[in-house]
Structures are given as C-alpha cells and as structure tokens.
Amino acid sequence: MDEGEVTERGAHHVQSLERGLAVIKAFNADAAELTLSDVARATGLTRAAARRFLLTLVDLGYVRTDGKYFSLTARVLELGYSYLSSLSLPEVAQPHLERLSAEVHESSSVSVLELPDIVYVARVAVSRIMTVSINVGTRFPAHATSMGHVLLAGLDDADLRDYLAGARLDKLTAHTKSRPDELSAELVRVHKQGYAMVDQELEEGLRSIAAPIHDRRGRVVAAVNLSTHASRTTRESVERELLPPLLAAARAIETDLASAPPSKARHG
C-alpha cells in the first residue's frame, strides 16, 4: 500500500487502522521476525510510518522487539479469538470429527472460506501427513484443497466469476489445477456430485476428500474433509471407504447446527 495511493473509500474509512492491520499481516510463518525495513517494504509504508505503527503495537503488547527485529506476540490471537469463540461451528463439529477419525483412522477437519483461502476451524489429527503442521487458524489456498473446491462450488455465480477473474492460482504441485477454465470445470463437477476429491494438488503424497456443510437456508457455510496418504490409498478406495462416513458426518453436523439457537448458529 503506497502512502500516496488514492483509493475510493467511504467517509467512514480509517486509514490508520488499515495500515496497522497491514503491519500485523506482514508477519507470517515464513517471516516470523522482520526488521523495520522488511515491514516497510512488505506494507508499502515509509520507514517512519512503519516505525510508528510497530512501536504502537509494541506498546499495546501485540509485537515485541529486541531493538532490531520485530515479531508478533501471542496476544494477536485475541484478535481472532473473538470471532472463533462466537461460532458454534467448531464446538458442534469437534465431536463429529472425533467420531469420524476414530471410525476411519484418518485425520479430519472443518474449514470455512476466507478468499482466497480456506481457514481451519476444527481438526482431529490422527497422523501428520503434510510437511507443515495444521492447526485451527491454518490457511491454505482454496483452489488447491478439497475443502476449498467444495466451498468455491458453493458460491453464487457472480462471486465465483469474481474469484476466478482475480485469483492467483499458483501451481503448487504438478497436479494443481492452475488454469481458471480447468478449475471452473472441476467446480461444476463438485457441485453436481456433492463432494470434492483433491489428489496431490496441495502437496505431493496428500489425497483428500471433502463434503459441504449447509446452514438452515441451504447455503454452503463450511466443509469437512478426510486426508490420507496417496501411497496407501487409491481414488477408488477413498470414494468407497471414506466418502460414505464423511457424508454422514457432514449431515450430522448440519443437523446439530440446525437445532442450535439462531444466535449460536452463526458461522461467519
């Protein structure tokens, strides 16, 4: 964000808040510690402005510094906790994931869509099958994940067109669907069949299958999946052995969500 950049914003827009959030978002798993210059470069702010925001965040307890490097503190989790704790979805889904994983002996997860990514909101890990650790709050590109395909297939036509027109479809493996037309065709198939299978598109050796979770009005608000090693399963065995219990778990989560009070049935 260039400080001189002019964008159309409403009269309510607080630019300093936008810039402060941009500073927090500059940190990630690959950039856990940043210098002042790193933050200025990542956000497009001047060094002087980046310094003011960083030191303010230090004062508030969200950032720590040794004088040269800056890093986030655990306090930033509070920013997302209010959202996650207001949802009934994680607590409703968790016991169903535990039963599902115990039945099929595979890791299970629930995620929601936050374009261009999916965000994990509940998980039961049977074994670690990816090179990175997955926890609540982990994000992956929607276009390369089974839950992402289910959630994208649930978008209305206009939102899906906007996504496909502007998304960066990085080719993460040789199998990733990185062309808009290819992904669009797959999403049509997912919508018709009611589930998605992704075969080593996010990471080599990872095969996963996902089903949608609908709200009271029939909208797709989340997705549930099972992940397995491609070396010990085939696409056919996943559909034969994992899909039926996965669909049953999705329906059970929907039933519990529908029975929750309206004030507790919000998913974001």
Automatic annotation (TrEMBL):
The keyword Repeat does not apply. Keywords: DNA-binding, Transcription, Transcription regulation. Residues 14-74 form the HTH iclR-type domain. It comes from the Bacteria. Residues 75-259 form the IclR-ED domain. This is IclR family pca regulon transcriptional regulator. It comes from Amycolatopsis roodepoortensis.
